[in-house]
Amino acid sequence: MSIVDHPLILGENFSLEPFPQQFPDDKSSTVLIVGGGVTGLINAWVLLDRGYHVTVVSKEWASFTEQQRLTSQIAGALWEFPPAVCGQHTDILSLKKSKHWCMVAYDIWAAIASNPSLAALAGVQMRASNFFFPCAIEELPAQHHKMEEIAACGVHGFSRSIESIHKHGIDPRYGAVDAYEHLAPVIDTDRCMEWLMLLVQSKGAKFHTETITSDLFSQEQELLDRFSADVILNCTGLSALSLAGDKTCYPLRGALIRVINDGKDFPKVESSLAITADAAQDNEIVFIVPRNDNILLIGGVAQPGRWDLDLTLDSPEIKRMRTRAEAFLPSLKHARVDPEYPIAQGLRPAREKNIRVERELRTRTMDLHGEPTEEPSRIIHNYGHGGSGWSLSFGCAADVANLVEDVLHNLPASKMKLQEKVVVENVRMPAPLDPRLMSGPIRARL
Length: 446
Fold this sequence. Notes:
Layout: E1 9-10, E2 30-34, H1 38-49, E3 53-58, H2 71-74, H3 92-113, H4 116-122, E4 124-133, H5 141-153, E5 159-160, H6 163-167, E6 178-187, H7 189-202, E7 206-209, H8 220-226, E8 231-234, H9 240-243, E9 249-260, E10 272-275, E11 286-290, E12 295-299, E13 303-304, H10 316-328, E14 343-351, E15 356-359, E16 363-368, E17 371-376, E18 379-383, H11 389-408, E19 444-445
Parallel strand pairs: 2-3, 2-8, 3-7, 4-10, 8-18
Antiparallel strand pairs: 1-19, 4-6, 5-6, 9-12, 9-13, 9-14, 10-11, 11-12, 15-18, 16-17
Helix pairs in contact: 1-7, 1-11, 3-11
């Protein structure tokens, strides 16, 4: 937990413009970010806007070919209030902090979506997100509590109504009897990753392609010297298993079927439709999300401990996934699979205690005037997001930026913990954004 607490403020320490909110100079500190996925790029954006020099090192970058794509590109990227549909949030500390982080991200993605030209570049849209239940929500205490939190947290367009079951053509025989909806950011990850890479480079980030292996702590000084850095930020997802020596990291294999959503084979699906694992009768997820104006994602699976990426449309779990979706939304029986990219699969970077946003807790014994002293590490960790990397992105990055200040002041590291009171209001928009303002600074606290 950081000693300082500087929230993101659009127009003061954060900007949507293609140049940094605060330009660095020769005396500005340098942050080395290891990891080029969405977490690394969003952290680079936040730090660049605070006037740091930033170098991003990654073994691979977003690609747009038939080859295996980054996990950040495979993600469903539907913003969700935690716990997410895949149901992998288990740690109380992580879950509580995630409820704050997700609202920071919600406001920023909504700000991007409110500007038509920026939204088109970034591939971000605000769409209705619907969640369905096999009984009255009150009969599912955890889901009822979550719904009440969502209704009160400040998301736009919240409503509870069984009418959405009929409106969206859900088969009543599937057992959906209750529902609620709200507006949520939906992100075209391929387009957004390309945009993020261009954006952070235009703000001044340097990209370096290299595979770093073994524990960062064991090579900390060498990396700091080689990249002329003052701080190292670990955003390596599953690779934290080796780079942070964290044996609690594990893969959560996921897959999505991509079908053509042009309105020719079935009524075009414009909203996200989901049944969470704990609410489903068979404990399996239904996850239907418009990726963009032409592709619909059908999911999903969450398989812990599976490292292989060998799923096909004929794999039993993929067949069951499609059968569930078609039983839930019968019009999908006529869907055509995307011939160029029929199935997206990847490994969500999960962790037993979920998300880690904290400094390296190991110290080094240094000799100071003949006396041994414990020197804090200059490494910060931001990994273990599971399937929520996009949903929590900016919230985690804001906390990381505060931890960077702690490192630069050589303050002792401490374990991640809750503040005495998490104030969600200090990251909210005071009023809906006017798209006409997006061309210049907006003094709105996020």
